[in-house]
Write a structure and sequence with these properties.
- It is built from no helices and eleven strands.
- It has 122 residues and is mainly β.
- The strands form two sheets. Strands 2, 4, 5, 6, 9, 10 and 11 form a seven-stranded mixed sheet that branches. Strands 1-3-8-7 form a four-stranded antiparallel sheet, with no helix packed on it.
- The termini are far apart.
Amino acid sequence: QVQLVESGGGLVEAGGSLRLSCVASGPTFSTYSMGWFRQAPGKEREFVASISWYSITRTYADSVKGRFSISRDNQKSTVYLQMDMLKPEDTAVYYCVLDSNARGVRSNPDYWGQGTQVTVSS
């Protein structure tokens, strides 16, 4: 069973930065994409960012473009999300995902992490 373990969440003031990490373990696919979703209180889960196996294709939600950056290290089976210029509306539980589609995560990825809380104070 594939396991995804997120870390790096926490409390930060508006304008600050956080870096999320997610390590994949278990019998993953030979190639796969990884990404992040988030869910704010009272709202539906939404896509945040995606990165392809070779890191060629990186996709972002419009709400985070120019502020968030996704990267990965295949040797470490790890994906990162650098979040800068954070806003209170970025407050949410952030979920790491892994998808068998190597070009990018789909709307319903194959595997999900447990989530890490990010809280941005105003």
